[in-house]
Amino acid sequence: MISLLSRRTALGALGAAVTVPLLAACSGSTSSNTEASTASSVSGAANTANTAVPATIPEGMGSGSGDDVFPRTVTHFLGETAIGATPKRVVIISTGQLDASLTLGVVPVGATSGDGAGTVPDYLPAAFPEHADALAAITDVGSRTEPSVEKIANLSPDLILMNVAGKDAESLYSSLTEIAPTVATQGTGQYWKQDFLLLADALGKPETAQAWLDAFHADAASAGSGVPASTTVSLLRKNGDRTRIFGAVSFAGSVLADMGVARPDTQTFTDDTSIDISEEQLDQADADWILFGVQGGDASELTGMSLWPTLSAVRADQVVQVEDDPFYLNAGPTAALFVLDAVSTTVK
Length: 348
Hints:
The chain has a six-stranded mixed sheet. Strands 6-5-4-7-8 form a five-stranded parallel sheet, sandwiched between helices. The relative contact order is 0.18. It contains 15 helices and 13 strands. Residues 13-49 have low confidence and may be disordered. The chain folds into two domains: 4-31 and 226-346, Rossmann fold (3-Layer(aba) Sandwich), CATH 3.40.50; 53-218, Nitrogenase molybdenum iron protein domain (Rossmann fold). It is of the alpha/beta class and 348 residues long. The protein is 37% helix and 16% strand.
């Protein structure tokens, strides 16, 4: 069983190093068809009742097999894939899947980079120091939207994991299936829980993943009990020319929902994960607390905006710059623990 407690301890130490308060003075510048145990199924049903995002594999997908049962045939977003034995050489194509596979104890031989991030985001070696050497040895196989099929083939994988978001998925899938069995999840932060479970099915660990998710829901509810019920938390990100606020079904927003943390009225939307705002609309990012990320880490891209000093959270010294990657870019289970720890140790 994967210990969430020990993993949270490691992430908590990391979060303390990268979560920096910005003072006002310086701011103005299992799916229904997965054979899990009865106890796990009951626990999962109880702990996912209030989740803001899908927390089971879509009906009709998955394999219907339990942990370590091979061969298995996994139904996924682009078809059905037969996997003959426990995968040993896995290649990861999409954001968040490296996080998910590591959470399940699987270190891939290849992974993609891009979207302003490296092949292995910094928070993952810190969370999994036992895999530091293997993580350093991962081969970069190109961008997430257009990976190098040749580099992937050279790694002789026995399983490839991708998602269907933000790419010519069918064409890529067709090319990858010529190399090795390939399984496609849905992608984007809104679907991180269901994608974690589907990816786990392909790796032969669906029961392990469900147990992890059940424990996470319980852990999040417990951590959230320490946040005052009336305290609102805003999620804000700057990347390039875009300034965005994140709603209830965004990745970090879903963790806040699991914790029972309140959101400002401007960020309770559920029809999209985020909304772009202009500099003149920065007041939509205001709340009791603002947790913001900036791609590249230059806080002045936000703190230099003319309306920044007028925000109530800034005036109350309740603005925190968080690590951009686990909060806003890599939607995976260990990133979810990172968000949970950052919120529970910051917002009081």
